[in-house]
UniProtKB/TrEMBL annotation:
Reaction equation(s) it catalyzes: (S)-2,3,4,5-tetrahydrodipicolinate + NADP(+) + H2O = (2S,4S)-4-hydroxy-2,3,4,5-tetrahydrodipicolinate + NADPH + H(+); (S)-2,3,4,5-tetrahydrodipicolinate + NAD(+) + H2O = (2S,4S)-4-hydroxy-2,3,4,5-tetrahydrodipicolinate + NADH + H(+)
Ligand binding (NAD(+)): G9, A10, T11, G12, R13, M14, G91, T92, T93, A115, S116, N117, F118
E.C. number: 1.17.1.8
GO molecular-function term, one example from the UniProt record: NADP binding
Protein name: 4-hydroxy-tetrahydrodipicolinate reductase
Residues in Dihydrodipicolinate reductase C-terminal domain copies: 121-267
Metabolic or biological pathway, per its Swiss-Prot or TrEMBL entry: Amino-acid biosynthesis; L-lysine biosynthesis via DAP pathway; (S)-tetrahydrodipicolinate from L-aspartate: step 4/4
Length: 268
């Protein structure tokens, strides 16, 4: 069966990558592509007006929509998909808590899969973090992410996911070692950059966002103790890895029931 895909943000960096990756696959076909700047052709696909999105869902009935846009449009596209009964894959970052609530609401009607990063390397990095953090409990942790100079949100969505992974790993190891679980619950304080008199406090996680050139995406987690340190680094060489992962997710999601899904389920 060929899965038909609608693509949003078609004139954006990721939209173009998704259309290029889709053209190379036999298991997927592009039903339509939209942008707020319609009229162009991207990877041979005519780009329609984003204002016609609901009509295009009705007329083309895609199996799934793949979205890499902005937080506000992501929510609008998700609720239109929920109303039309179309599955929704999104990698849009910078969503607020309310934005995630709106996506989860859409997931009560249709399958929704959100991932802050669609690369297999980051999925492996997350597993490595969940192993390294408990093994090196008490070590200082600093997270540094580096992206191209046009990225809007900071820290990156992937950095936020990794910070949550660190919190979860820390709290699970401390719960197994302590009877007083009130003592060990809660997020590690996150310190974004340092300036002036800013000594490190125990347990904090330093977070650093760099923006430069055309770097597709780099994430480093440094765990440092006395006389040793471990650095876990992922570098995306091109946005193609994100597009490939998002299309794998779309093919996987197309015939699922309504609900909230994670990229790790696609990779199982
Ligand atoms: N999860 C992952 O693996 C990855 C996630 N991302 C995320 O994907 C998102 C897009 O990144 P990128 O492609 O670099 O960004 P770009 O700015 O290059 O493209 C964004 C596209 O979305 C469209 N768009 C933005 N806001 C709206 C809106 N309000 N309504 C309709 N269309 C809108 C833009 O349309 P127009 O051109 O008409 O203005 C543009 O085509 C970001 O959140 C980024 O962090 C990026 C890479 C990987
Ligand atoms: O905006 C980008 O480019 C990227 N955004 C995602 C994020 O915020 O983590 C994923 C990737 O790092 C590229």
């Amino acid at each position: 069966m060929t899965v038909s895909v609608g693509v949003t943000g078609a004139t954006g960096r990721m939209g173009g990558e998704v259309l290029a990756a889709a053209a190379d696959r036999d298991d997927l076909s592009v039903a339509f592509a939209v942008s707020r700047s319609p009229g162009a052709s991207v990877e041979g696909v005519a780009v329609a007006d984003a204002a016609d999105f609901a009509d295009l869902l009705a007329s083309h009935a895609p199996d799934v929509v793949v979205d890499f846009t902005g937080p506000a449009s992501c929510i609008e596209y998700a609720s239109a998909c929920a109303a039309a009964g179309v599955a929704f894959v999104t990698g849009t970052t910078g969503l607020s808590e309310g934005g995630f609530d709106a996506l989860r609401e859409a997931a009560s009607e249709v399958p929704v899969l959100y991932a802050s990063n669609f690369s297999r390397g980051i999925a492996a990095l997350r597993r490595a973090v969940r192993e390294a953090v408990p093994a090196l409990d008490g070590y200082d942790i600093e997270l540094t992410e580096t992206h191209h100079n046009a990225k809007r949100d900071a820290p990156s969505g992937t950095a936020l996911t990794l910070l949550d992974d660190i919190d979860e790993a820390r709290s699970s190891v401390r719960q197994t070692r302590s009877d007083d679980i009130d003592d060990v619950r809660g997020a590690s304080p996150r310190v974004h950059g340092r300036e002036g008199e800013a000594p490190r406090t125990e347990g904090e996680v330093g977070v650093h966002a760099r923006r430069a050139g055309d770097i597709a995406g780099e994430h480093e987690i440094l765990l440092a103790g006395n006389h040793e340190s471990l650095s876990l680094t992922h570098r995306a060489g091109s946005r193609g890895v994100f597009a490939a992962g998002a299309l794998d997710a779309a093919a996987w999601l197309a015939d699922r029931d309504a609900g909230w899904y994670d990229f790790t389920e696609v990779l199982e």
